[in-house]
């Protein structure tokens, strides 16, 4: 069954203020649509439940990448092609640039937006492990004002988040303090490209005086939503990278993750692969720390 356009309303106010006014006037009634790479697939399959859509495409206040002294602010409507082409992101946040290259084809990347990827909230979202590893924050806005939270607190359940019915995801903030860190991102899927992740792990860490001084682990397809592995981080923080540390980290990860069986993989496979990816990262981190 294909979608019927007559069953949906689509408006394009053309500016951010008008969009926020619309959301405020009828909270929860309008579904924002930017690139449409998720919603139009649902529409084509006759599974788009949203009857009222408000377009965010072409609004400059939502599509930007602004670099300041201590952070990079990315507008929610910035596309993954925008991220791939940005020189500062490539140099300082390589995991985000790498994740952007995973999003479908180049045609998809020119339409799909970072904000849409986050609001869609797939447990397998390609951008999320990188954002979690980089300690991103997100800003949400409405006619009532703006509020900012750590991205790791944004998702509350499967395809659920902290956006209020009248709010819009506005900006993603990434700190510029990872130049000395080790960066790691691996995605395991059915194919090398254009595949949904069976498991993905993003990580950043800093070793000082032989000990893990900072570490952040972001995972996809290991919980009902993209998640920071904070218990596993705690097991590693302040530790030297030794065989017993790696074994303890594997145990902590296996106790923390909550993968499921689905058409792409099994929970058992995801758990084993995730533990192997973590060990691979720790061995890379150890090798880098030993270099002069």
Secondary structure blueprint with pairings:
Layout: E1 9-11, H1 16-25, E2 31-33, H2 39-44, E3 52-55, E4 65-67, E5 71-75, H3 80-85, H4 87-92, H5 94-100, H6 106-109, H7 114-120, H8 128-133, E6 137-142, E7 145-150, E8 155-157, E9 160-161, E10 168-175, E11 182-188, E12 199-208, E13 211-220, E14 227-228, H9 230-236, H10 243-256, H11 267-290
Helix pairs in contact: 9-10, 10-11
Describe the protein's architecture and organization:
With 292 residues, this protein is an alpha+beta fold. The chain folds into three domains: 5-55, Uridine Diphospho-n-acetylenolpyruvylglucosamine Reductase, domain 2 (2-Layer Sandwich); 60-175, Uridine Diphospho-n-acetylenolpyruvylglucosamine Reductase, domain 3; 182-290, CO dehydrogenase flavoprotein, C-terminal domain (Enolase-like, domain 1), CATH 3.30.390. It has helices at 16-25, 39-44, 80-85, 87-92, 94-100, 106-109, 114-120, 128-133, 230-236, 243-256, 267-290, and strands spanning 9-11, 31-33, 52-55, 65-67, 71-75, 137-142, 145-150, 155-157, 160-161, 168-175, 182-188, 199-208, 211-220, 227-228. The strands form four sheets. A five-stranded antiparallel β-sheet has the order 4-5-10-6-7.
């Amino acid at each position: 069954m294909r979608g019927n356009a007559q069953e949906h309303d689509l408006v394009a106010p053309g500016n951010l203020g008008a969009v926020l006014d619309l959301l405020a006037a009828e909270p929860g009634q309008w579904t924002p649509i930017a690139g449409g790479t998720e919603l139009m697939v649902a529409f084509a399959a006759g599974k788009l439940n949203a009857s009222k859509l408000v377009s965010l495409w072409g609004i400059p206040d939502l599509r930007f990448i602004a670099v300041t002294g201590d952070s990079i602010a990315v507008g929610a409507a910035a596309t993954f092609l925008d991220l791939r082409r940005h020189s500062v992101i490539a140099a300082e946040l390589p995991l985000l640039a790498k994740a952007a290259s995973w999003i479908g084809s180049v045609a998809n990347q020119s339409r799909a937006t970072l904000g849409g990827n986050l609001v869609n909230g797939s447990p397998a979202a390609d951008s999320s492990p990188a954002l979690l590893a980089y300690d991103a924050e997100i800003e949400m806005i409405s006619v009532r004002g703006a509020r900012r939270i750590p991205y790791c607190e944004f998702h509350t359940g499967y395809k659920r988040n902290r956006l209020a019915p009248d709010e819009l995801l506005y900006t993603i903030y990434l700190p510029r303090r990872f130049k000395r860190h080790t960066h790691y991102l691996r995605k395991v899927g059915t194919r090398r490209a254009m595949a949904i992740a069976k498991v993905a792990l993003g990580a950043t860490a800093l070793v000082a005086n032989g000990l893990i001084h900072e570490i952040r682990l972001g995972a996809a397809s290991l919980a009902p939503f993209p998640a920071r592995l904070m218990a596993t981080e705690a097991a590693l923080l302040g530790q030297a990278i030794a065989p017993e540390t790696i074994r303890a980290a594997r145990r902590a990860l296996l106790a923390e993750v909550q993968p499921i069986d689905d058409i792409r993989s099994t929970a058992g496979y995801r758990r084993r692969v995730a533990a192997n990816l973590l060990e691979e990262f720790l061995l890379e981190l150890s090798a880098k720390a030993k270099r002069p």
